[in-house]
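Hi again,

Forgot to attach this to my earlier email, sorry! This is the prediction with cobalamin bound. I've pasted everything inline since the attachment limit keeps bouncing my files.
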Amino acid sequence: MRRAGDLFEREEYFIPSCSSARTPCMRACACCSRTCQAGRERKKGIVVIGVVEGDTHDIGKNLVKIMLETAGFEVVDLGRDVPPATFVERAESVGAHIIGLSL
Ligand code: B12
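Structure tokens for the complex follow:
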């Protein structure tokens, strides 16, 4: 993804190429995450995470989610383009210990 980002900034890559680079990146991360979580209980706390309203960049958020889950947190993922009130409502309803805003 770093390489794709460099090429995007040099205008050698365009939006479809960046989107294509995302798929293998997320598949590899999900595979590593499943392996690391095998047999582990989630009990360190609850995290509500999402990408703030107006933004759709979710690769970083997805990586952070994987790291948190691997570290033993339960993660409630609100997705992207999330209004502020939704973060508050979901955090209250699930009893979140941490709210993570990605932008
Ligand atoms: C891939 C990409 C896209 C993809 C997004 C695919 C997706 N589903 O995410 C596509 C092609 C769709 C896209 C679209 C756009 N993009 Co874009 N995109 C990028 C690119 C190339 C890489 C971003 C990325 O994924 N980086 C990799 C991840 C892993 O890094 P990260 O997001 O920083 O996340 C890390 C940390 O920030 C942190 N983190 C992130 N979230 C959280 C949350 C918590 C709780 C914590 C603790 C930590 C954390 O941990 C992560 C792991 O280390 C960057 C350029 C660049 N070099 O960064 C531009 C870039 C982000 N895009 C940009 C722009 C302008 C756009 C568009 C507006 C373009 C357009 N005119 O349509 C649209 C956005 C539309 C919208 N409303 O959101 C600009 C943003 C400028 C700005 N700051 O305002 C950038 C910087 C390019 C540029 N130089 O102009 N983009």
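The chain has four helices and three strands. The chain has two domains: 1-39, 42-103.

That should be everything now.

G.
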